[in-house]
Amino acid sequence: MASGVRRFFDKILLSATSSERNHLPAARRSNVNQEHEFRCYSVFVARLAIMGMLAVLIGLLTLFTWHFTKVYTRTSLNSLAYGLRYELLQRPILRMWKILNSTVEITTSQVRISEYVIRKYSKAENQAQQVELYEVMRDVTWALFSSRKALNSMSIKYRNGFVQAFHRDLRDKNTYYIYSNLDNYTMVEPYGMNRSSPHDLEWNDQMIHGNVSAIWYREPLDPDTGRKTGKQKVIPPDELINIAGISQVPDGAASWHVAVSKFTNSPLLSAALPVWDEDRGSIVAVVGVTTALYSVGQLMKELVEIHGGHIYLTSQEGWLLATSSGTPLLRNSSGGFALTMAKDSQDEIIRSAAEWLNKTYRHKPPLNHEVHSATTTLGHQRYYIDSFFLNLTRLPMVGVLCIPRKNIMGKVDAREIKTLIILISASVCILVVGCICIFILTNGVSKEMKLRAELISHLDARRKAEASSNFKSQFLANMSHELRTPMAAVIGLLDILLCDDSLSNEQYATISQIRRCSTALLRLLNNILDISKVESGKLVLEEAEYDLGRELEGLVDMFSVQCKNRNVEAIIDLSDDMPKVVRGDSGRVVQIFANLISNSIKFTTSGSIILRGWCENLNSFSNNENFFVDHRALWNAYQKKIKRKGLDGKRTSKNDNIVILFFEVEDTGCGIDPSKWESVFESFEQADPSTTRLHGGTGLGLCIVRTLVNKMGGEIRVAKKNGSGTLMQLYLLLSTPADVPRESYRLKFAENNLKVVLALNGGTNRAILSRWLLKLGVSIWEANEWNELTRILQEMFKPARIESLSSEGVEMEILIIVIDIGMLNISTDIWKEQLNFLDAFSRRAKFGWILNHDTSNTIKIELRRRGHLLMVNGPLYKTKLIQIIEAIIKESNLDQPKKNIMWTDAHAQSSNDSEVTETNSTESFTAYGSVVSHCFPELTDDRSEWDRLTSVPNGNLNCEQQIHQKVKNGQKALEGLHILLAEDNPILQRVATIMLEQVGAKVVVVGDGVQAVETLSIQKVENFNNSCDPPPFDLILMDCQMPKMDGYEATKAIRRVEMESESHIPIVALTAHAMSSDEAKCLEVGMDAYLTKPIDCKLMVSTILSLTKCNNLTLT
Amino acid sequence: MASVSQLQRQFVEYTTSLYNEGYLDDQFTQLQKLQDESNPDFVVEVVSLFFEDSEKLLNNLATALQQKIVDYKQVDSHVHQFKGSSSSIGAQRVTNVCVHFRNYCEEKNLDGCLRCLQQVKHEYILVRNKLEALFRLEQQILQAGGSIPMME
């Protein structure tokens, strides 16, 4: 059984685990599996425990229910049964008692009457009197006998041996009178004869038996009247009845015994009483009465019949007196009938009951008290056995009642078993159902647990994946740093080489080629860094106001050089409604367009690249058929932007409104296959892999662009274009300060009655500009080439017209000739003659020259000499045109003498600078510093450093210029500077010291941050005391990782001290890490700049200069 | 003066081989550039500083890694210092091993650390021998009355 249960549970366990295994992905590691098995096992144990508890509970419940139902019924039934049995037993015993009583009564009354009669006739002298006495006695006896129907016989035996007896034969319902003849009896004194001899009192049967000669007669009588009905018959004595003799009353007291008669089959109760004479001296006669116990048996039979039980009465010795069964009570033995013992009864039940009683109470006096036994097995049945002891002096009797248990408790027992079966089966059902319920419930729980475990493991896996992705970006950042450091060194060394005059031309070319390659490599590294930044979510967009138009124009300026070299026109066409100032991350916006434009340049061999931009207010924005916009996405982005704006509403003014800026970058290159329009924005994806070799590139550019655009709440896609080439459309959501005044040059232009001749090479650009000018109400002439220009000019300045012009006055109209330097034929000397031709008009028209980046100085000088002072670098776009026009208007209005103005663009000084440093040819890197730094990485390893350098307020540009001079001049750049170097590494200490000293700085070296702080504070105190002695430090070079106190802590401490004195000493970090986070950390703690190890001498010097220049410059 | 020029050529070749085999990098060149009349023994000075520092650091590292419970933070800072000083003199290969070393430190990989320590020691001894040889060559040239050719 137990093993079967175990097997069953094993099976469940097995199926559970196997199902679990099925749930698990196959490729799980083993420990996970084990874990699962363990978990499953614990669930299983819990399940088993609950089931076990349920089983115990239900079992107990069943047992108790059964027990109580059983016990209560049983007790009540038992008590009822006991009562019944008692009653049953009591009644025959009572009947017996009654019989005895009545027998005793009748005997006693007979004795009394007999005494009286015999006394009366005691003086009988003759036979007649004697006969009369007997007659009387007969009548008296009859009277008594007939009054008691239950009597079996009544006899009087006189002393003389005469017998008178009445006998009722119960079998044939006859009544007989039995007497002996008188003849044989001598007339003797009935009493007094043996008065003297006491032993005479003892009659014995011998007397009677000795009187064998006596003849007995029997005559039938009418049972009612007692009359003789038949003839008398002679019968042998003692044939019919026992006549009670003297022997039965040996002591003169009444005697009882049970007798047996051969005429009845039931034992008889016989009582004998002596009849005393007058003075009680002697017994004159003995009266005997017998009563059949038949009726008792009858009663018993009736009583127990319905119960199917048995009752019997025994004497104390065990002789059966009466039974409820029909078996004979008498035994036909050799000596006639005899009583049977109960244990010899023919009735099996009685016999076995007697035996049982005997066996149980064998040696003790068993029957003196009552016995009640409820569980005796007799035969094959169980019986109740009760015995009752009737203690009569002469005849103690025992009544025994056997009732089969079945009759009383049979149904109860049957019910009991049924109830038990029902209860057990019900509880088993409940148990099974409960177990199933538990199984299902716990299954649910365990499923939930499993799910939870899986969820946890998934989370774990995700965390791991994230961590590994973090590692990846960390790795990328680290790698890019590790790569960028040597790259920077390479580029720097190349620059040094390029400066060397002793190079041959070939060497120079090779080196510049190497430099270009290095730059490209660095750009690639920067791209990878960007991608990893974006992927790790570290890219945070700045929120700063900037002039979008200017940035884009600068970008185009920068690319124009490249375009010019490739003979491609770079055009920017921004609509007038573009907001001047927008808020956002200028660097990133510029990066977007730089990537797009450089992409276009890469694939465009001829034609033009156009950057268009216009603006829509979101509120007034209506569905533009031409442009794709996912409205929902747009709206979401807008909401987000609004929300963000609300969040940092303190920083941005409330008046900001959000505009959608649409841009198109169009080129006339090879174009992109429509099937690739989506995939070009994926990482490392190029439209045509075969072009990689031709054009290079990693395929990261567009991916970065899209990420950035999406980050700015916009979208980008490739659009369909007429003709060959690519059309990229994108929009950005940018906020603009609402109250930026917009210049209205329109009015000014119209007022001045402008006439413009556009002599430009690029057709597209010219068309755009002329359209714009026309819209402003300016008269336009366009010239494509030199000949056309001359034609136009000649037409305009026909003599007649000139006169009319002069008569009308010069103020009335201003003629502007915007002329591209490319119009001139520079390759030969014709250009001088062309200039001469133009000079003819110089009095009447103003010239604006568009120069190229490679326009040689001789031409410039020549132009200046001839008074053409208005020169701008190409390409021409609106802003530049406006500047030209405004300058001319101003000039003509003021009518000032010609001034030495060199118009370029807003970054006048920077452009100057670019002219000065034009040796760097293609790069022109000093213009638009931050713009350039994204596209053309500089010598500087660190971009922020460069930003710092270039983001110096305009007022200080002079300083910057001088710095450049100084750097170029070399050696003693840091002359007079006092520098504190905090560096723990002795080697670096030494190296840095020498480096700094070589450029003229004075260096104090300390070993850790604590010393640095102390040195500063001491110096400060001394400064207070003696202001001239040790000059204050101009700058601190701070290593980041130092013992005792690292650079960050030291910087913080220094800045804290400074807070009080409101001074600011520049601190430059020195660190071996080049991660942006380190940079951010450095700047966060209050450092001003950031240098990476190993120290690059040039970079260090320029950094130091940029930070100290102004005080320094004022000193020198 | 044939011996001088021979020595000079030998010096140049040796130095070039050092660069080519990656023992040294441009940082060493920068150091050499920094050496002038005011600091005639600058390179030797710095390099011997490096030797001293390295010996100390290597000892520290060895003891730190022999501890029952290795304090990786300390090891890491030692390695960092070593990396800084080696990169400052341009001992490129030592620097590279230091980078690996630090990775193992971050992983708390004792085996890797020990292996790296051996490597670092090996590289350090190599570079020390090379540099010492270089200096000996320099001494010889100077004694022979020649000037040390500048490496570009």
TrEMBL record, chain A:
Residues 978-1108 form the Response regulatory domain. PROSITE patterns: HIS_KIN, RESPONSE_REGULATORY. Keywords: Kinase, Membrane, Phosphoprotein, Transferase, Transmembrane, Transmembrane helix, Two-component regulatory system. Residues 478-736 form the Histidine kinase domain. Signal peptide: none annotated. InterPro entries: CheY-like_superfamily, HATPase_C_sf, HATPase_dom, His_kinase_dom, HisK_dim/P_dom, HisK_dim/P_sf, Sensor_HK_Regulatory, Sig_transdc_His_kin-like_C. It catalyses: ATP + protein L-histidine = ADP + protein N-phospho-L-histidine. The keyword Kinase applies. Pfam families: HATPase_c, HisKA, Response_reg. The chain crosses the membrane at residues 44-66, 419-441. The keyword Membrane applies. Its EC number is 2.7.13.3. PANTHER family: HISTIDINE KINASE RESPONSE REGULATOR AND TRANSCRIPTION FACTOR RR-A-TYPE FAMILY, TWO-COMPONENT HISTIDINE KINASE. This is histidine kinase. It comes from Tagetes erecta. The lineage of its organism: Eukaryota, Viridiplantae, Streptophyta, Embryophyta, Tracheophyta.
TrEMBL record, chain B:
The keyword Nucleus applies. It is found in: Cytoplasm, Cytosol; Nucleus. It comes from the Eukaryota. The modification Phosphohistidine is found at H80. GO terms for molecular function: histidine phosphotransfer kinase activity; protein histidine kinase binding. InterPro entries: AHP1-5/YPD1, HPT_dom_sf, Sig_transdc_His_kin_Hpt_dom. Keywords: Cytokinin signaling pathway, Cytoplasm, Nucleus, Phosphoprotein, Two-component regulatory system. GO terms for cellular component: cytosol; nucleus. CDD domains: HPT. Pfam families: Hpt. Its main location: cytoplasm. One of its GO terms (biological process) is cytokinin-activated signaling pathway. Coiled coil: none annotated. Residues 39-134 form the HPt domain. Histidine-containing phosphotransfer domain (HPt) contains an active histidine that mediates the phosphotransfer. Functions as a two-component phosphorelay mediators between cytokinin sensor histidine kinases and response regulators (B-type ARRs). Plays an important role in propagating cytokinin signal transduction. This is Histidine-containing phosphotransfer protein. It comes from Tagetes erecta (African marigold).
